[in-house]
């Protein structure tokens, strides 16, 4: 793992951050009276590569100090202070319009960055905030209940988020906060005792746990005698009676096996199960902690807690003395901060839980558990809809089983490949790899490429389209780029070797355009790490793919004799630009959890 303080060769430069730094210094020198001047720099859509827009806000700040100055004049004074670093990175600047500064980058600097990729690979950006302990709480299905498409979204977005944090060199802990504790286990265990009386000695063949759940729920609702036994079972379980613990474990195992199937297929690794049951004792502790601080109020037999800003209270203890989802999340937050030493905790659930997390964070701040040292984010996402824009269900109105959904993805991916007659050009093994790549890739990418705040329509037809920003388009674009070396009769080894001997020069306008885009990778990564919107990465990838096509259409890499098809000339520098592009895309795929293939 790369440390945050690793030498610069291990990290890539964020041009945006460098420019912000430059202009900060220049602005402070030009206007020493303004403390911590605003320094907005962004990618330019008109003149230059980047644009500095700091002159306008300074007008107001100066005015407040009784100084009147026009924005253009301010911009001129700032530009006059730009230090000599200008010579390495910035080719020229020009003051435009009402006081923007257009910044033109040096070609040699862009070339240097691209060659850095070839020499050292795609390295993480220099991370201004250093290395952090990051807890990512994701997937988190509930035992004996359906693992539904909402959990699929949480799994996909959470896994990518954790991958991104890994790439940045953070110390990442991936936690699966499964719902494995609570009163529903009373009825499940009572039902288990009736259905499989010898469950302690013989593993019960529960089979369909969802059906088992429904059966026990029905009895619980209809049979008062059963209900009574269910309550007794909860009490026994909570007092850690061996027989009841055994039953609980067996039920959890059945669920666990189902969850694992989904994780294995989606290639989700290092996800540590730490369900609600883990916090049993810690829930007692947190209740005591909050009681000692006099933060709990009686409310109709319940114990509740109000935060400072959130209107809704937490229910910390129910009237029957039991604990709730709120209690376990307070205990978990305390544990993660104090035992795991988390600097940053990220929760992935549907947007419907936003108020729950607001209340948790609010109360934890009030109780002094959460301080400004720890960053917490609830990363919410919209609901998954079917193609009819209604709640995602099977035709017969049932909840869609995730395993069935993944199976359908596999089938559709194979259809897609045979439609293109790929079975003729690929070996059976290559075909199988391509099928997997497309199936899981399209499900993940469709989710990740949309703004997660929006609701999301699940449609295999849409996700398998090969036009537009889809997995299929991106995966094909990647294989196409990878095949250019092969077209020049270069082996993968030849290409790898050339990375240390060849250099890229970006003479052609389209080469330069592509090079500039590739060098934006570090700033894109930092932006996503801050805002936690992964669709920004998909948009970047799509732009890379289309900009690559522009370059490839305009600049030959391999020249072949029209008649014989023989390779006449190979432009190695350009092959290296293709290689750098492929490496950037490969890193993006890795972060998103997609597995591209060399042939498709
Ligand atoms: N099990 C919950 C659900 O299915 C999600 C848990 C999310 N994590 C947490 N710490 N609350 O809705």
UniProtKB/TrEMBL annotation:
Reactions the enzyme catalyzes: tRNA(Arg) + L-arginine + ATP = L-arginyl-tRNA(Arg) + AMP + diphosphate
InterPro entries assigned to the protein according to its UniProt record, in alphabetical order: aa-tRNA-synth_I_CS, Arg-tRNA-ligase, Arg-tRNA-synth_N, Arg-tRNA-synth_N_sf, ArgRS_core, DALR_anticod-bd, Rossmann-like_a/b/a_fold, tRNAsynth_Ia_anticodon-bd
Annotated EC: 6.1.1.19
Subcellular location: Cytoplasm, Cytosol
Segments forming domain Arginyl tRNA synthetase N-terminal: 17-105
CDD domains (UniProt xref): ArgRS_core
Gene Ontology MF term list: arginine-tRNA ligase activity; ATP binding
Enzyme class: ligase
Matching Pfam families: Arg_tRNA_synt_N, DALR_1, tRNA-synt_1d
Keywords (A to Z) from UniProt: Aminoacyl-tRNA synthetase, ATP-binding, Coiled coil, Cytoplasm, Ligase, Nucleotide-binding, Protein biosynthesis
One GO term (biological process): arginyl-tRNA aminoacylation
Ranges where the DALR anticodon binding domain occurs: 474-600
Keyword Aminoacyl-tRNA synthetase on entry: yes
An annotated GO cellular component: aminoacyl-tRNA synthetase multienzyme complex
Family statement drawn from the similarity comment of this UniProt entry: Belongs to the class-I aminoacyl-tRNA synthetase family.
Name the UniProt record assigns to this protein: Probable arginine--tRNA ligase, cytoplasmic
């Amino acid at each position: 793992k790369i440390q945050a303080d690793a030498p610069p060769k291990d990290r890539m430069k964020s041009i945006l951050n460098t420019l912000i730094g430059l202009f900060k210094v220049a602005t402070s020198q030009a206007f020493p009276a303004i403390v911590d001047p605003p320094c907005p720099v962004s990618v330019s859509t008109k003149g230059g590569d980047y644009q500095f827009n700091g002159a306008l806000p300074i007008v107001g700040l100066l005015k407040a100090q009784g100084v009147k100055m026009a924005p253009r004049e301010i911009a001129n004074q700032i530009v006059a202070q730009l230090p000599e670093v200008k010579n390495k990175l910035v080719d020229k600047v020009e003051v435009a319009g009402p006081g923007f500064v257009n910044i033109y980058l040096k070609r040699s600097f862009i070339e240097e960055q691209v060659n850095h990729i070839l020499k050292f690979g795609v390295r993480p950006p220099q991370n201004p905030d250093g290395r952090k302990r990051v807890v990512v709480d994701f997937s988190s299905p509930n035992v004996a209940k359906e693992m539904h498409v909402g959990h699929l979204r949480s799994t996909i977005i959470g896994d990518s988020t954790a991958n991104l944090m890994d790439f940045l060199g953070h110390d990442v802990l991936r936690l699966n906060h499964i719902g494995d504790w609570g009163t529903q286990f009373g009825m499940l265990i009572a039902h288990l005792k009736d259905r499989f009386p010898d469950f302690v000695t013989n593993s019960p063949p529960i089979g369909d746990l969802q059906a088992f759940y429904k059966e026990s729920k029905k009895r619980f609702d209809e049979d008062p005698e059963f209900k009574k036994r269910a309550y007794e079972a909860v009490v026994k379980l909570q007092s850690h009676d061996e027989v009841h613990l055994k039953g609980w474990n067996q039920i959890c195992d059945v669920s666990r096996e189902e969850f694992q199937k989904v994780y294995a297929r989606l290639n989700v690794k290092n996800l540590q199960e730490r369900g609600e049951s883990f916090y049993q004792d810690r829930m007692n502790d947190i209740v005591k902690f909050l009681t000692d601080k006099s933060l709990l109020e009686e409310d109709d037999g319940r114990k509740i807690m109000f935060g400072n800003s959130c209107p809704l209270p937490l229910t910390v203890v129910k009237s029957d003395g039991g604990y709730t989802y709120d209690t376990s999340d307070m205990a978990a937050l305390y544990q993660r901060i104090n035992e795991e030493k988390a600097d940053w905790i990220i929760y992935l659930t549907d947007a419907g839980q936003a108020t729950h997390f607001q209340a948790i964070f609010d109360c934890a701040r009030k109780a002094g558990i959460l301080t400004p040292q720890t960053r917490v984010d609830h990363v919410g996402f919209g609901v998954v809809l079917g193609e009819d824009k209604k709640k995602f269900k099977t035709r017969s109105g049932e909840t869609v089983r995730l395993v069935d959904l993944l199976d359908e993805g596999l089938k559709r991916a194979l259809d897609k490949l045979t439609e293109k007659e790929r079975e003729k050009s690929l070996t059976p093994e290559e075909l199988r790899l391509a099928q997997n790549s497309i199936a899981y890739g399209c499900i993940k990418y469709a989710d990740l490429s949309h703004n997660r705040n929006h609701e999301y329509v699940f449609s295999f037809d849409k996700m398998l389209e090969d036009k537009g920003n889809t997995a299929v388009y991106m995966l094909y674009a990647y294989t196409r780029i990878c095949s250019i070396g092969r077209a020049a009769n270069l082996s993968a080894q030849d290409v790898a070797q050339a990375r240390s001997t060849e250099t890229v020069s970006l003479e052609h306008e389209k080469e330069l355009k592509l090079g500039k885009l590739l060098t934006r990778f570090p700033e894109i990564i930092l932006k996503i790490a801050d805002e936690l919107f992964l669709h920004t990465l998909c948009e970047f990838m799509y732009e890379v793919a289309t900009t690559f096509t522009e370059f490839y259409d305009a600049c030959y890499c391999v020249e072949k004799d029209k008649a014989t098809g023989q390779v006449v000339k190979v432009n190695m520098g350009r092959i290296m630009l293709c290689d750098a592009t492929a490496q950037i895309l490969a890193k993006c795929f890795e972060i998103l959890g997609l597995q591209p293939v060399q042939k498709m």
